[in-house]
Every structure is written in C-alpha cells, then in structure tokens.
C-alpha cells in the first residue's frame, strides 16, 4: 500500500533535484565561459604550432558562440578540450 506513495516521493525529489541542479549550475557555468575564452586568447602568443593555434582560436570562437546561445555546458566542453590540448590551466 505504501509503495505508490514512496515512488511518487522519489520521483518528486528527483525532479526537484534536477531542477535545482539546472538552476544553480547554469549561472556558474555562464560566468565561467568568458573566463576560459580570455585564458585561451591570452595563451595564443605562446602556442608555436600553427595548427594548434588555429584550433585554439576556433575553439575560443565556438565556445563564445555557444555561451551567447546559452549552451554553457557545451561551451565549457569545447573550451576545456582546447585548453587541455594546449596545456592551458583552467
């Protein structure tokens, strides 16, 4: 008899947690994107390989475009991948 109530309670808690997670992580991610773009652009002068420099510039531009489109999670993935490939700390 108590199982349906327990399942509803678990689903409600999961929904609230998911909403809260999306609500509280997006603003943090939104502020993070431009900082990573600045770090990449600041490091461009130290990148000697032309292909790596082009990749870093493209990643910075793509990350900024994703940020403006409010796709912060995707932007961070792109930016962090470029930073890791070029040895830039984030």
Task: Provide a short characterization of the protein structure.
By secondary structure, the chain is mainly alpha-helical.
Q: In which range does the helix fraction lie? A: over 70%
Structural class: mainly alpha
* Rg value: 19 Å
Helix and strand run:
HHH
Q: How many E strands?
A: 0
Distance between the termini: 52 Å
Notes on the protein architecture:
- The chain has 90 residues and is mainly alpha-helical.
- Helix content is 82%, strand content 0%.
- It is built from 3 helices and no strands.
- Helix 1 crosses helix 2 and helix 2 (50-68) packs antiparallel against helix 3.
- 17% of the residues are buried.
Layout of strands and helices, then pairs:
Blueprint lengths: L2 H41 L6 H19 L3 H14 L5
Helix pairs in contact: 1-2, 1-3, 2-3
Task: Name its key features.
elongated; 90 residues; single chain; mainly alpha; 3 helices
